[in-house]
Amino acid sequence: MKKWDEIISYETFRYIDHTALHEFEGKPYTAMTSFAIDDAIATAVSNGASPPAFRLWKHPSTIVLGIPDGRLPFLDDGVAYLQEQGYRVIIRNSGGLAVALDEDVLNLSLVLPDVQHVSIHDAYEAMYHFVQHMFQDLTGEIEAYEIVGSYCPGDYDLSINGKKFAGISQRRIKEAAATQIYLDVRGNSQQRARHIQEFYRLSKRDESTKFVYPEVVPEVMGSLSDLLDHPLTVDDVKGRVYRALENLSEEIIVQEFSEQEKATFEKRYEQMLKRNERIDQR
């Protein structure tokens, strides 16, 4: 197993801050757009047209469903409920299940090349330890293991004292991997969880399904601000990301999107639209 800092240690990193966008290449800046952007970056990183990249992004009031969620027997009822609560709903193209995004949730995408030499497990470990590194002055208590009762549960749920504040997914394209994490920075984490809990209740009802969907327990979720007893904002955490990246690389660059990246984005965006045809985008 490679050490996490060896996996992330590159001379040059590309830094992309998309937390304040309203549109991208003439498209509305939604979570669908973000997943298409990450695919375009991963393709460029795989081809050697871009250095390894760290992208920061967020979206207001969005529930991002996983591919298995799209097979829920009464999905339309659950989606309608979420939309009534003011959420946009999309199905992503990477692993995992439903997660809640809003202005107080920061997403990070770490895009690395040559991942034929890096296991999926090691890529998760790298993101986990990077987050530990970001907050090392505030806590040494961040752990990675499945938090039963959380939404989008998995082996790399990040938690403090048994309460989850982050989840990680991964998508591989050719020779690159985009490891994506959401960080619940502040806000009402349990209210977010209650909305996802009700989504599953309405979408599954009492039907038996081959896939086991989570029984969400809102009390096992928490924000970094609450769990650390330290007020944080998204801007605070963005600063921590940048400083941690400075510690691991010699140069951080801002690189405009190339014409090839834009072309890849257009193709991937169309694929995201097709994936989401079933959902009424109100």
UniProtKB/TrEMBL annotation:
Catalyzed reaction equations: N(6)-octanoyl-L-lysyl-[glycine-cleavage complex H protein] + L-lysyl-[lipoyl-carrier protein] = N(6)-octanoyl-L-lysyl-[lipoyl-carrier protein] + L-lysyl-[glycine-cleavage complex H protein]
Per the UniProt record, the source organism is Oceanobacillus luteolus
> What residues sit in the active site?
C152 (acyl-thioester intermediate)
Full protein name = Octanoyl-[GcvH]:protein N-octanoyltransferase
The biological pathway it contributes to is: Protein modification; protein lipoylation via endogenous pathway; protein N(6)-(lipoyl)lysine from octanoyl-[acyl-carrier-protein]
Instruction: Indicate the annotated site residue(s) for Lowers pKa of active site Cys.
Output: K164
EC no. given is: 2.3.1.204
The UniProt family comment states:
Belongs to the octanoyltransferase LipL family.
InterPro entries documented for this protein? aa-tRNA-synth_II/BPL/LPL, BPL_LPL_catalytic, LipL, Octanoyltrans_LipM/LipL
